[in-house]
Amino acid sequence: SQQGEEDPQALSIQEGENATMNCSYKTSINNLQWYRQNSGRGLVHLILIRSNEREKHSGRLRVTLDTSKKSSSLLITASRAADTASYFCATVVKAAGNKLTFGGGTRVLVKP
Amino acid sequence: NAGVTQTPKFRVLKTGQSMTLLCAQDMNHEYMYWYRQDPGMGLRLIHYSVGEGTTAKGEVPDGYNVSRLKKQNFLLGLESAAPSQTSVYFCASTLPRSGANVLTFGAGSRLTVL
């Protein structure tokens, strides 16, 4: 069973709009990470948020974490066509040897 | 600085054949991982290694074997390939710091088993 589940599975927006995707998980985490995967490529790390943090920013990315609801959200502001990709959340659980467990991903299409 | 390199990038096998995927990293990372990615399933961990000479099973280890004889290399073997092993395989590595475990991924190896 997957630790992280992303919602929605797919998202289509116009360039300039914001994109929001959510990740829910089941067990207590050490940290939660977001990765991007362009078509046919490997995953690239975007941002990490620790269990004692509630919000982090990196450029046009904003990540929130609500440990009481076991959920996280990734917001991409002022989207660009180059943001078209799949986005995955990954949870790190200390009890599981700090291995990353990935969700199924959100496919984002940004139309020019 | 190449990062994580996977070979081969593409391979077609017949059922029952064997093959080895090679992962090489030049970042002196301690931990290495093999994942498979199937449509709608995200990435699932096959095997991993926390150091040279050590390996451990992940979520879906059946049908695969691994070896970590050198720190920079992590090999994934299929002894008798099955159509269910058709997938895209990703290798990743990390130098764990305070449990952060941020992964660097290779570009992937697409395997088709007929």
Question: What's the short version?
Answer:
Helices cover 0% and strands 57% of the residues of chain A. By secondary structure, chain A is mainly beta. In chain A, strands 2, 4, 5, 9, 10 and 11 form a six-stranded mixed β-sheet that branches. Chain A has a five-stranded antiparallel β-sheet with strand order 1-3-8-7-6, with no helix packed on it.
Helix content of chain A: under 10%
Structural class assignment of chain A: mainly beta
How far from one another are the termini of chain A? Answer: 37 Å
Mean pLDDT of chain B: 94
Largest interface (CB within 8 Å) is between: A-B, 27 and 26 residues
Provide the succession of SSEs of chain A.
EEEEEEEEEEE
Query: Helix count of chain A?
Result: 0
How much of the polypeptide of chain A forms β-strand, as a percent range? Answer: over 45%
Order of helices and strands of chain B: EEEEEEEEEEE
**Discrete helix count of chain B:** 0
Care to count the β-strands of chain A? Answer: 11
Strand residue percentage of chain B: over 45%
Oligomer: heterodimer
Radius of gyration computed on alpha carbons of chain A: 13 Å
Mean pLDDT metric of chain A: 93
Helicity range of the residues of chain B?
Answer: under 10%
Pick out the low-confidence regions of chain B: none
Poorly predicted runs of 5 or more residues of chain A: none
Description:
The complex is a heterodimer of chains A (112) and B (114). Chain A has no helices and eleven strands. Chain A is mostly beta strands and 112 residues long. In chain A, the strands form two sheets. In chain A, strands 2, 4, 5, 9, 10 and 11 form a six-stranded mixed β-sheet that branches. Chain A has a five-stranded antiparallel β-sheet with strand order 1-3-8-7-6, with no helix packed on it. The mean pLDDT of chain A is 93. Chain B has 114 residues and is mostly beta strands. In chain B, the strands form two sheets. In chain B, strands 2, 4, 5, 6, 9, 10 and 11 form a seven-stranded mixed β-sheet that branches. In chain B, strands 1-3-8-7 form a four-stranded antiparallel β-sheet, with no helix packed on it. The radius of gyration of chain B is 13 Å and the shape is globular. The mean pLDDT of chain B is 94. At the A-B interface, strand 4, strand 5, strand 9 and strand 10 of A face strand 5 and strand 10 of B.
